[in-house]
Amino acid sequence: MISSLILKFNKTNLIKNNTTNFFLDNVLNKNGYNNNNNNNRFASYKSFQTLKTDYKFSEEDEVFEEIKDFKKYEDRGNYSAAKSILNRSLSMVESTVGNKHPITLNVLFRMVNLELIIGDLSSAERYANQILSRLNNNTNLSNIDIDSQYLIPTLNYLLICSQYQGDNEKCFKIIDQINEISKKKNDWELLISNLLNKAIILSLDCNESADQIYKELIELSNENLNESNKLNESILSNYACYLHSNGNNDELAEQLYIKAIKLAESNKNDIELVNILSNYGEFLFDSDQFDKAEPILNNAIAKSELVYGRYNPKVGTILYILGKINRDKRNLAFAEGFFSKCITIFEDYKNQTKRKEHERQLLNQNDTNYHYQPGKRERELRINKEVDIDFGNVLWDYAQMLRDNGRLKEAENLEQRARKLNSFEDD
């Protein structure tokens, strides 16, 4: 199940390349990034989806044996076989229980989810629109079944498809639909989370209209949400990222970071807390507040290790920032230690990824009836590309530090490795 999106970009080093990762091509590679100092600005945006907007499959959904077979192949990564089973299942339930029966809608919803896992956006969009048409007697939204458990998740899937294709106009139309439903249901949490997604999309384009939406979100959350609602820290942290990445108001951004940290700590929202601490640490680095940044980043590493494990790429990204801080403080031995540990984490992650893909292929090589197709899993691809970006950046920065200190042969080796990752361009 595809849930929240964590969007990361490096403003000066991310370049366009021919990649199958539609998310990075169409969403992250944008023009118009502002940079008010010589350091690379880094920002991490996070969209928020409540349980109401993210349908969860349960044992009650396993209504016939075919679905269990489908899950077996999906779990093994044999998406061609899984898709074939679902197609047969869809034909069967449509002919036996009808086009609008909950079981039929359940199979269609699984088709949407599978197509998104595979990466076929057009097919995912087509199946999602089929669900909406079957929930609706007419094309008018006022006649749709707004209480259906499939409505909001399906609209969110359409939103994901549009966002990955870079079609912001379509994104905003879908967001307006969800807002209309939210108002009819008097669901403030849904309305606010949906507006936050809109603000994040605008933030990625550095669109100034995002600022007004964030201000509206803060007002709406103060009026309609409890302080313990985790949307609060998501709003504040994303607004801080927007202000920081645009360089509009660093003083307000820092206030928002501090408040978001306190809320995330009180709500025990460790996943969001890791993102906030990392971004706040990068903000302090950009502001040359090195001594203040280091304890924040050490806290981020401790939290990240608890949430994700000691050798997760998220830990490597934070170590990279600490390496840059020590480099600029001329603590070169410490900087080299942080860069080296960061590189080790990224190397291990990439080796594990290759090993998992090889194991997946071996597992399916005996399925002679189906051609194995590696799934273009959105989350896996996005994390893999982010690792390549950060990996290339740390190799390059480490190389420049070595070059400045006369270690030319080592520097050239690292630069060559960085170029292979396509994470940057030479000046």
Automatic annotation (TrEMBL):
Taxonomic superkingdom: Eukaryota
Listed name of the protein: Kinesin light chain
Organism: Dictyostelium firmibasis
SUPFAM superfamilies: TPR-like
A Pfam family the protein falls into: TPR_12
